[in-house]
Design a protein that fits this description.
Length: 392
Amino acid sequence: MRAEITRARINSLQPRPGKDTWLWDVKISGFGVKVTMQGIKSYYFQYRMGGRSTPTRRLFLGRCEWMSLEEARVNAAKSRNDVFYGVDPFDERKRKRVEGASFKDVASAWLDQKIDKREQGRKENERIIHEVLCPALKNRQASSITERDIQAILDQYSTRQPQGNRVLGVLRQVFKYARKPFGLANNPATDIERYQLTSRERYLFPDELRRFFTTLDDCEKNDLLRKPFLDLIRLLLFTGCRKDEIRLLQWRQINLSDKSLRLHTAKTGPRTVVLNSAAVEVIQDIPRSKKNLYVIVSPAGGNGYLKNTSRPWKQFCELAGLEDFHIHDLRHTFASIGGKIDITMAKMGKLLGHAHESMTAKYTHLPSESEREASELIAQAIRETVKDSGNE
């Protein structure tokens, strides 16, 4: 249907079942209004970049409900003028989108489409975007960001190199994603080198292990630190698990009948962790609340887990006289004791849930007896080390 497009005619247009309705303007060739079968009305500009043999293209100008007819006419006339001078309106819109998109726009779009298997991974990506990168890059256009800009951000992480590598990883993914939807031709993060990390080899020596347990007992007896935190570090030492694997552990994941934990969202994928007798004793000593799903509960109460571990861990290390010792080093301690009593690398890999072992792990996997024996031997070795150190 062809007629002069007016506001009254737009309002009178009604949807038809089975197909869309079009009203083409008689004043500006190619300017039209489409009404979908659902009744949605939109402005379009239809054109060809060449003769009749070239395909017809339709450029969406805007919805009738939020764009005035006058504005739509101006945009249609401008697009028609671009076609006359050989400029494709689609290419022009893409160019303006690339030039106008800020880093925040691109990063937000990347977050919206990204699917993270682990909630913790999603939160960390959001934190890096909103707390690190957006404040650093402010309202910079994404296309104007250079390798030098990114290097300046990473230079601030010279003393926190693992975190710097995570920031670089997010930047690489954001700019890689932006190629298609935002038309960014270059990824300024591609050629920037990651920090070369040296492996950390810190674990508890026998005298430190004795002080570790002595401090645990003192803290619990004298109420120096909250019991959920003390239970957390006990379980980390006796299981060799990563911090969040225990911190976010729920009661439904524990099976004391076969002495195991079912970790559904572990770093390297779902896996089963064996529980030695020492770990079982710790769990059995933890009071269970019907209102809380988590094993390591929040001191604030409610249905939450322990969130802040850095402050109590710093206090604990000061009380125990442990220098340069991270909470993740409890995992190293578990592994080092296993190595000292000749637990094979294959068994240790399964106990620790390393990636190359977990590739074949399944939800229904049950720990073998050899894994149970290895975990039990490590727990016994920890206890004997503490006992021997106390007798010296």
